[in-house]
Specification:
alpha+beta; two-stranded antiparallel ribbon; 55% helix; 19% strand; elongated
């Protein structure tokens, strides 16, 4: 009952100077709104990257070959072919945690159908590749182990490439010329969209790696392997086992660097989301400064309010109000200011998060409003009211009643 009466008096006191109250809350409104909007952008970016990483497949272990140095510059892992067919078979047979593995041979080639042609990515892969990458077929079927062993001229086609070469048609069963070699389309790949690097994953053709190596690239080694672990828990074990096996097979001494690189899907995801996390914290910290400024504004106005209402405080004390009653009164006013400002800030932040993707559509901004960010922002605004409102409230509670009554 006392708390209800205190709240009622606080609301009446704030209504006396509506413009001043609104301006005081403005810092909290902008601060909370900015924090929610920034966190929603960061969460959206993180979710987008995680979805793109998930499109790689489940429990993936990526094995890259060594790097090449040209003109004193290291070109990076995957640029030198240090992985062999023997390595592929050894990993398949000797690493128990690996349930599927496929090599990758990359090449860009001109593909043509009649008078339609396109320059697309042709990827030589194994039978397990679709399973590892969780890549479905919308029509047709995957090539077989017989196709791989025989180096048959068969292919799977991505949606973008299919739309370019066979607009409005089902490409399954059609013939495509890749570098003047006729390949039969066995299946149409389901759309995967953009990769984490911004590449169109559907602008691709998959062929048996034996066909790619003998007919398209002339390579005898591989740039990378895609392996799949039996479970997420086994990823570190598989990573260590593959590393040990390849070091042994490549006769790499204890004091020498690996001529390959083994990365798990978890590591790739952590690396990809690290930048978005840093940017979210940085921008969130800048936005939080507005909350601090808003808190200082509340303290300033509450100190002014104590000075203006000194005589009122003296009268209340004269009729029996205790110091803690005065403390509670002014603390309640500060908290109400913060909570109302926080509520309006949450509304502003949510609306901003909904509008931003449309306004910044050219930048591909995606937002995701997390309920936890709303709860944290609301609680933080309440803490600001308590923290910055305590000193003015304490000052009011410590006023001498006689001096307060004499104040003009």
């Amino acid at each position: 009952m006392i708390l209800f009466a205190t709240l009622k008096i606080a609301l009446l006191a704030l209504r006396r100077n509506k413009m001043r109250t609104l301006l005081t809350m403005l810092g909290i409104i902008i601060g909370v709104g900015a924090v929610i909007a920034v966190v929603s952008i960061g969460s959206g970016a993180k979710a987008q990257v995680e979805a793109q990483i998930a499109s790689m497949g489940q429990n993936v272990v990526l094995i890259l070959s060594g790097n090449v140095s040209r003109g004193g510059f290291r070109m990076g892992f995957g640029t030198a072919g240090t992985l062999t067919r023997e390595d592929l078979e050894a990993i398949r047979k000797e690493v128990p945690g690996v349930v599927a593995i496929s090599p990758e041979v990359w090449s860009f080639a001109q593909v043509a159908v009649g008078n339609q042609n396109a320059n697309t990515q042709v990827r030589g892969v194994g039978v397990d590749y679709l399973e590892i990458r969780s890549w479905a077929l919308t029509s047709g079927a995957n090539f077989t182990e017989v196709d791989v062993r025989s180096g048959n001229k068969v292919a799977l086609i991505g949606k973008t490439t299919a739309d370019l070469l066979f607009p409005g048609e089902d490409p399954v069963g059609k013939i495509i010329r890749i570098k003047n070699a006729p390949f039969t389309v066995l299946g149409l790949l389901a759309s995967k969209g953009m990769s984490s690097r911004g590449d169109d994953q559907d602008d691709v053709m998959l062929v048996p790696y034996t066909s790619a190596m003998t007919r398209l690239t002339g390579q005898t080694t591989f740039r990378s392997f895609n392996a799949q672990s039996a479970s997420t828990k086994l990823l570190p074990t598989v990573q260590n086992d593959v590393t040990y096996l390849l070091r042994q097979r490549h006769r790499i001494g204890a004091d020498r660097e690996d001529d390959f690189l083994v990365r798990t899907q978890q590591e790739i995801a952590e690396t990809a989301t690290a930048t978005s996390k840093v940017m979210t914290w940085l921008l969130g910290s800048v936005a939080a400064v507005s909350l601090l400024v808003g808190g200082i504004g509340i303290m300033n106005i509450m100190l002014v309010s104590v000075t203006e209402r000194t005589r009122e405080i003296g009268i209340r004390m004269a009729v029996g109000a205790r110091g803690r009653d005065i403390l509670l009164q002014f603390l309640t006013e500060a908290v109400v200011l913060s909570l109302v400002g926080g509520g309006l800030g949450i509304l502003l932040g949510v609306l901003g998060s909904l509008v931003l993707p449309t306004v910044l559509s050219s930048l591909g901004v995606v937002t995701l409003v997390a309920p936890t960010s709303i709860v944290i922002a609301f609680l933080f605004s309440a803490l600001i009211g308590i923290f910055f409102g305590f000193y003015p409230a304490r000052k009011a509670a410590q006023l001498d009643p006689i001096d307060a009554l004499r104040y003009e």
